[in-house]
């Protein structure tokens, strides 16, 4: 907004600058003034399949079964990778079913599941387990 179009007073520029500089709400909500924290390494798991990372990889060429994505599960302790073919359209319920069939059935439920907050891993996926 250009304030000078509607109003003027002597030393207006200094007054507005001072107001903005001293405004607590303005300074705390400006993204440039928020200090970013340092990344902290994840703790090393104490045993295999205690902590896993999950993500989807695609779009890949379609297989004869129509799969065009991979559901990637990595054990953070051993670095073992499980690649589960799936479709791009897999639902949260479908991802939970794949997880159960290919991971939980063999290794049990991990203590922690790390993801990039993909919608397939939020809410219903974890509740489905």
UniProtKB/TrEMBL annotation:
Integrase catalytic domain: residues covered: 44-129
Pfam families reported in the protein's UniProt record: Integrase_H2C2 (PF17921), rve (PF00665)
Domain of life where this protein originates: Eukaryota
Gene Ontology BP terms: DNA integration
PROSITE patterns, A to Z: INTEGRASE
A GO MF label: nucleic acid binding
Protein name according to UniProt: Integrase catalytic domain-containing protein
Organism: Prunus dulcis
């Amino acid at each position: 907004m250009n304030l000078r179009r509607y109003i003027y007073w002597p030393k207006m520029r200094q007054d507005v600058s001072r107001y903005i500089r001293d405004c607590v709400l303005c300074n705390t909500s400006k993204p440039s003034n928020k200090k970013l924290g340092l990344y902290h390494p994840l703790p090393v798991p104490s045993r295999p399949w205690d902590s896993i990372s999950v993500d989807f990889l695609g779009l890949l060429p379609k297989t004869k079964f129509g799969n065009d994505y991979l559901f990637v599960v990595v054990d953070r302790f051993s670095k073992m990778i499980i690649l589960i073919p799936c479709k791009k359209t897999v639902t949260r319920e479908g991802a939970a079913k794949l997880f159960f069939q290919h991971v939980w059935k063999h290794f049990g439920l991990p203590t922690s599941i790390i993801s990039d907050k993909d919608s397939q891993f939020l809410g219903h996926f974890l509740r489905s387990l």
